[in-house]
Design a protein that fits this description.
The chain has 368 residues and is an alpha/beta fold. The chain has helices at residues 12-16, 24-27, 52-68, 74-81, 133-144, 149-156, 160-174, 198-208, 241-249, 267-272, 282-285, 296-310, 320-332, 337-350, 357-361, and strands at residues 96-101, 107-111, 117-118, 186-195, 217-224, 229-235, 257-260, 276-279.
Length: 368
């Protein structure tokens, strides 16, 4: 992922695919002159007698431009216009009226409360888009397939920063998605550990002078009843009664059966929820074949989680919960990757979220 210092560098890729929402302020210099000339302007544009070299450059650049500025397809316009409107995205008034269609065919509305206009996408993550939703579909398919953002950026011909910006939007849509999950029946639970980045581990070792890097692992409470799951970041300390209650405690139904490794702090929520406890220590399950291992359902999730995160090395640990929400969405949404894309679009258009590009990249870099 691009580092903060990379933001201003004009590589062919960033030139080719500018940030999704370049505002007039971004694009003009101090004297209010455009910083970049239009991609479709050539010094020989007015010339009647263009050379072969000029024609080649022109056709190549125009081809790129067409690819990057694909017009929404009729299906996309139909999709956008089919989005049910509940209220005005600006003032929440339920009194609004159709107000003609834009040049692109997208239905416009006028609020009778505040007088402002909007479209079905106003206030969603697809708002102010320069890029059609069809490109989002491509991005989501890559993300759900455990692709790294770098690979996906190459495939999509988008600037990596755009990928990071879109990821922030995906995270925003998924925030809170596990809030109401309650597991019931037979529940498997175990903590998954993620390492801090190597640099942080080295710093910790240097500080303590020991070979141990304390506080360099992140614990994630993971549990499943075979249908749903929870993946909740506990923190960097070993599980305690308190952190177990805060994570598992509010997501498991009373009277369920818990299959686990006997971690002592689990007794906090086992007692509170009157769970039946079925302990299989790691000494007991070590070396067992998957089909014979009573912990297999949770081990299997840990394996997939590991694989998912290894597609994003160097990810920002402060966003580990966001990553876990994304993995949760991929794991818990029924169907194949196309069904998951469909479910995501439905969720995204139902949520009003606005993230500005500069909010993500103005101060610090993003994830890789
Ligand atoms: Zn309004």
């Amino acid at each position: 992922m691009a580092l903060p210092g990379d933001c201003g560098r004009l590589t062919w890729r960033s030139w080719h695919a500018p940030p999704e929402e370049p505002t007039a302020k971004h694009m003009k210099d101090k004297d209010k002159r455009p910083r970049f000339s239009s991609l479709r302007q050539f010094s020989w544009s007015g010339s009647k007698d263009k050379g072969e070299d000029e024609r080649l450059i022109e056709s190549t650049v125009l081809e790129w431009y067409e690819q990057k500025h694909r017009k929404p397809s009729p299906e996309e316009i139909d999709f956008i216009n089919s989005i049910p409107i509940r209220d005005c995205p600006h003032c929440r008034s339920r009194l609004f009226a159709r107000h003609g269609k834009g040049a692109n065919g997208i239905q416009r509305y006028m609020c009778l409360g505040c007088g402002r206009r909007f479209t079905p996408l106003t206030g969603t993550i697809f708002d102010s888009r320069k890029i059609p939703i069809s490109e989002w579909i491509e991005f989501l398919l890559h993300l759900f397939e455990y692709h790294s953002l770098k690979t996906s950026a190459n495939d999509n011909r988008n600037a990596e920063t755009t990928g990071g910006y879109w990821l922030s939007k995906v995270f925003a849509v998924l925030r809170g998605i596990q809030r109401d999950v309650v597991l019931r029946g037979t529940v498997w639970a175990d903590e998954k550990l993620f390492d801090a980045p190597n640099a942080a581990k080295e710093r910790a070792k240097a500080k303590t002078g020991s070979s141990l890097s304390r506080g360099c692992q992140y614990y994630v409470a993971t549990a499943t009843d075979g249908d749903l799951a929870i993946f909740i970041v506990m923190g960097r300390s070993k599980p305690s009664d308190k952190s177990c209650m805060r994570t598992y405690g509010r997501h498991i139904a009373e009277g369920s059966a818990l299959i686990h490794d006997g971690e002592p702090s689990h007794s906090s929520f086992i007692d509170a929820l009157a769970l039946r406890s079925d302990v299989h220590t790691s000494a007991e399950t070590k070396g067992l074949r998957d089909s014979e291992n009573p912990m297999d359902p949770i081990n299997d999730i840990h394996d997939k989680m590991e694989k998912f995160m290894s597609a994003h090395p160097g990810y920002d640990r402060s966003r580990l919960q966001d990553w876990m929400n994304l993995f949760w969405f991929v794991w818990c949404t029924p169907g194949d990757k196309m069904d998951k894309v469909k479910a995501f679009l439905k969720l995204a258009i139902s949520k009003r979220i606005r993230i500005k590009f500069r909010d993500v990249y103005g101060k610090k870099g993003g994830d890789s």
